[in-house]
Amino acid sequence: MLRVAPVLALVASVAAIAPPAHAQSAAAADRLVQELLETQDLKPSDRVWIALPLGEPSARDIAVADMLSEALYARGLTVMGNLSIAPSPTDSYGYQSQLAALKAMGVTKVLGLGQTADLANLKLRVIEIPGGWLKRVRTVDLGDAAMEAPAAVAEPSGEATDERIASGTPRHGVGLQYSSLSGSGATYRHWTESGWGFQIAGIPALSFANNRTEGFVNLGLQGMHSFLKTDTLRLYTLLGIGALYRPNVMHSRFDPGSNSTVTQTGDAWDIGLAPGLGMDYRVFDRILLTGALGYTFSRQSFSAEAPTYAYSPGFTLGTMIEW
């Protein structure tokens, strides 16, 4: 005789412990929205349109859109509605006319859903309005509580590249700059999620011909704090320190005692401290123009002579690639 009751009781207890699939998907959708906010692919002020896959929307498409809408509402974002939208800016006039209509409605971001047949590998596109720039392509898992890491980033053409990034907000940058505030030459920069950052710049230009060292070494360090950031513009305060070293410099001065000009050779140092305001302007997806204005308070010294002190306005101009 089969003992059915204990087996049924065991199945019932497992079912009671396991969360419903919808609850797991809703939790995954909530985490997805939270991560998009943390990487600044979405902002709390965004007005979001959810774009369904092309064609007649299925019940599954609508269910996924509703689930994302609930997660967006829970995080304080505004959901404007949903429709089927062309997959990339390379498509025809129909896509551009849809972008114009969304812009007129005040939409700032579009979340484009891929085919919902496989929720464990759902493609999600984050599209910037205006412009229709494909800001991010992700593969997400809404079938359970797990989610995969960000996939490829896409260019404005809509074609995915092989680049993989850790977040939507670039943290690192390299470039070139000229600066009388905090060092000229090759530049490395790093931003933290809290809006603080630092930058190192420098260039060695020395020659060692005829057993004589000539040229200069320029080094600089800069601390920064961002107080305004948009998709194309960042404003920040800065405090920089720079040093310019020149070996074997010839220096002439008038000597009242001998009533003649005296020429000396020695090492020259120029060390400065510079507060200021900086600005980054994004001209392309990862390319910035950088600039800053400030005042430099400097100490200048030559060999054994007494140092002199000065202050003067200064500026920075440069370009940078971020990732």
What does this protein look like?
The protein is an alpha+beta fold and 323 residues long. It folds into two domains: 20-164, 3-Layer(aba) Sandwich (Rossmann fold), CATH 3.40.50; 172-322, Porin. Helices cover 19% and strands 50% of the residues. The chain is built from four helices and 15 strands. The strands form three sheets. Strands 8-9-10-11-12-13-14-15 form an eight-stranded antiparallel barrel. Strand 1 (47-52), helix 3 and strand 2 form a beta-alpha-beta unit. Helix 2 packs across helix 3 (59-74). The chain is elongated. The model is unreliable at 1-21, 87-93 and 144-168 (pLDDT under 50).
The portion of residues assigned to helices is: 10-25%
Order of helices and strands: HHEHEHEEEEEEEEEEEEE
Strand order of the largest sheet: 8-9-10-11-12-13-14-15
And the CATH topology of the largest domain?
Porin
